[in-house]
Amino acid sequence: MPNGAQTLIRTLVERGVEVCFANPGTSEMHFVAALDDVPEMRAVLCLFEGVATGAADGYARMTGRPACTLLHLGPGLANGLANLHNARRAGTPIVNIVGDHALHHKPLDAPLESDIDALAGTVSGWVRRTTDAADLKVDVTLAVIAASGSPGAVATLILPADVSWSEPGPSATAIAMVHDSGPGAVSAQAVTAAAKALRSGETAAILLGGAATHEAGLRAASRIAEATGANLLCETFPARLERGGDLPEVERLGYLADFASAQLDGVKHLILAGARSPVTFFAYPGKRGDLVPEGCEARELATGSEDAAAALARLADEVAPGSVASDSATGEVAADAVTPAAVTRAPRPQRPTGSLTAESASQAIGALLPAGAIVVDEANTSGLWLPGATANAPRHDWLTLTGGAIGQGLPVATGAAVACPGRPVVCLEADGSAMYTFQALWTQAREGLDVTTVVFNNSSYAILNLELQQVGASAAGERARQLLDLSRPGLDFVALATGMGVPATRATTAEEFTAQFERALAEPGPHLIDCVVPPIF
Amino acid sequence: MPNGAQTLIRTLVERGVEVCFANPGTSEMHFVAALDDVPEMRAVLCLFEGVATGAADGYARMTGRPACTLLHLGPGLANGLANLHNARRAGTPIVNIVGDHALHHKPLDAPLESDIDALAGTVSGWVRRTTDAADLKVDVTLAVIAASGSPGAVATLILPADVSWSEPGPSATAIAMVHDSGPGAVSAQAVTAAAKALRSGETAAILLGGAATHEAGLRAASRIAEATGANLLCETFPARLERGGDLPEVERLGYLADFASAQLDGVKHLILAGARSPVTFFAYPGKRGDLVPEGCEARELATGSEDAAAALARLADEVAPGSVASDSATGEVAADAVTPAAVTRAPRPQRPTGSLTAESASQAIGALLPAGAIVVDEANTSGLWLPGATANAPRHDWLTLTGGAIGQGLPVATGAAVACPGRPVVCLEADGSAMYTFQALWTQAREGLDVTTVVFNNSSYAILNLELQQVGASAAGERARQLLDLSRPGLDFVALATGMGVPATRATTAEEFTAQFERALAEPGPHLIDCVVPPIF
């Protein structure tokens, strides 16, 4: 008779959850012991919970299917919350398993007792505590379904230790074989209204978000833009933007309020396809937070829970009936042959020479980015030139910092590499952000993951130097500036990576960086480059 | 006219809060800018919020006064929660300042928006969001008072960015000059009842906790134990246990349920002085969680909010009127001269030779621990021999993992060193726990803190090997054991420390460790020793 933990893992596997990013403790020892009974579940050990949750996010962004986590009580969940916050903003499916004290132990208020439900509620679309092992099969099934909605969600299952170690009796509840009903249907009314706006003769823009940043949505949106002259934009921080190769290019809405306002200036109709109405990341004294221009009407073609790509396709058929989408199933470029969307791509950047800067490093990345790369971008200020430099690279995916909680890049890269063992992962990291969840490198070494990490080491929280100006705190003195400085002492990322088993090099010229980046891509397994650049602010 | 941030910092300083452990973001930039206007506030930059909160815990454990933190929105608070959990369990005063979006920005649900109040509620004794800069002076005052109660608490002040940047109008509320009323009075009834139990002729034990583990409580408890034959114990994980020199020795209640049960076996009267009734850390199949033996009566002499040391002194006067406490103000050993408590101390351990093990390393630490040391103990399984080896060392403080959320040691050591610049700090760390908040080393290097960190590097989560047996999951196979293994790849703590500017060495023999430990203590500033030992489980 299997115990609760064995039942749990077996049910997860039956529901397609085959990877567990884990940092277990005592209350999760039966789960750990049960791994030998269900070899189909791959357990990946992480040295910190923020690595586990971020890896689960990266895994699901690439597979579309949830991984599970295994976290130790309230503090373990707390350590993983920041990256669950990012996952929530990305609409990522995750089955988040949090061990708890045995039910009879909770009233004793032992030292590790805390309010797991309150913590879980802040990031989860679904939370349940299983109190009887007989309910485990149902609860796990419901968790997987809750995670796998449209959009995906964090589904947190709280697992008391005694439920894990008990042998389930017969289930009282019949398992409802409920499946996710898929995204909401396309609204014909919304399509008609969007078409009318596009035909109004007034300036229009389409803002893509969620699943509309994948191939089908991009191609449909491109047909619309070609036919109507609408501007094509996507949300500032897409969970997964498909790019490069023959895909239509889409400009991301700027992070800086002034830049985003300029992109939307004069727009009278803003059509939201899977994206939310745009707002600034932060408030600034005397500036509007709502980025929709005065006099502009923002209308939803499809919400985040509807099928934005299908809605775009319907809208394209309405406003551009003559155009043909490329065959996304085969990846062939049918559209390019018959529509004006066939873009003559600018050449990729040359290999840079001379000074190593954020700009020249970006050129090297653009010059060398391999086909099929998964790019995880937490480069922050140093990433300014990356979109331009890589726009003409071969087909790749671009994963961004969806929720603004830094420390996401290295873990997401780790999970993406677990998800896609045949594809090169390129992780572009800011130094300050890298130090949040640096422990991810150890898991990359342990699992032999093909991740090339570039740390843009500018010895500062450069974005905060900028923000210090933005919020009007411009008269900042020496003590304030010291709080944004990472140069005393400097961080030696070569030593840090080496300490966790990841081969690493330091680049101080563009030539060194280019050579090191090329070599890291050519060799399997993880590598890190300490890319020493001046701050751009 | 000062703005909100300047008013905030000025008020903190006026209330005795003079250190801020910070990891700020955009919404905290006015706080950062205001640091130059209030030079009495010392800001200490941390590379991760868990370092900031743990450092605030260590600082207040040593000074008795709160430091403040500065955290960035919900995700920043989330990253700091695990060590706030430990601080809550320690009864540590902390003024926890969490920046938030401007009030008018919150309804926009920008990417970093999350439920800060829910997160804060899980660790805080007091939570307030200031919504008008005119209220800041009052709210900050109340936060400091709420933090500084008996016992101390985490008081969380949520600070919207626009409150920070506004200039406060006249305060609507008069500032109530409320001061902490101090710990609750001693209950004469509880003293009488405890005295009666001690005189019953049945086996009795006194369990010390909270402030009763400081000198006055220890000396009073020792008088009682000498006079009545009661066993003297203290809680398993004291926030700050004063030890060594001429202080009475007190045995800590064991972490392992079987060990703790043996310590309490046969006790008929358990007198709780500032300690809670003892329970096991975790539940184990078929074992009781309540450690109070069947037939034993646990009675509170003083709760955690009462003055346990005063209650013990009253009880000592009742049951041992002839004994005299030593003069704790001068540190002279008056009591030892006149009471049987004058213990002939065993000699300190010799410097060890031969194999480097947790036991021989502990001997070296016991042999060399300097007078006035602050020992931060997160050595976990490798710490088994530490209490014995250091019992006869010169006077020192021992700070432990109060809440069980690992990743506490390096941050607490950092804060303790900021609090006590003249005292050597010795941080005894397990390898797995060290990797949670390793970023603390950078702050130690930056601030030139005199911390000697010993990482017991046994390449495993050794305690989980033990717990895997304890919970009955004894048939664990290879895949389970791999999840507790840290040897693939091994962690090179010398490289990791060097990467953050902390000089480090590796010891593989007892002689090497002893020489390195002695040298690290002799040199100012931070040092780390990668102490390679076999796991004890």
Biggest interchain interface, per-side counts: A-B, 101 and 101 residues
What's the gyration radius of chain A in Å? 24 Å
Q: Quick one: biggest sheet of chain A?
A: 7 strands, mixed
This entry's quaternary arrangement is homodimer
What proportion strand of chain A?
15-25%
CATH architecture of the largest domain in chain A: 3-Layer(aba) Sandwich
The CATH class designation of the largest domain in chain A is Alpha Beta
The SS-based structural class of chain A is: alpha/beta
| Overall residue-averaged pLDDT value of chain A | 93
Q: Percent of residues of chain A in helical segments?
A: 25-40%
By DSSP, the count of extended strands of chain A is 18
Contiguous runs where pLDDT drops below 50 for at least 5 residues of chain A = 326-343
Distance between the termini of chain A: 63 Å
In CATH, what is the homologous superfamily of the largest domain in chain A? Thiamin diphosphate (ThDP)-binding fold, Pyr/PP domains
Could you say what the CATH topology of the largest domain in chain A is called? Answer: Rossmann fold
- Number of domains as seen in the coordinates of chain A: 3
- Order of strands across the biggest sheet of chain A? 9-14-13-15-16-18-17
Q: Rough shape of chain A?
A: globular
**SS element count, helices of chain A:** 21
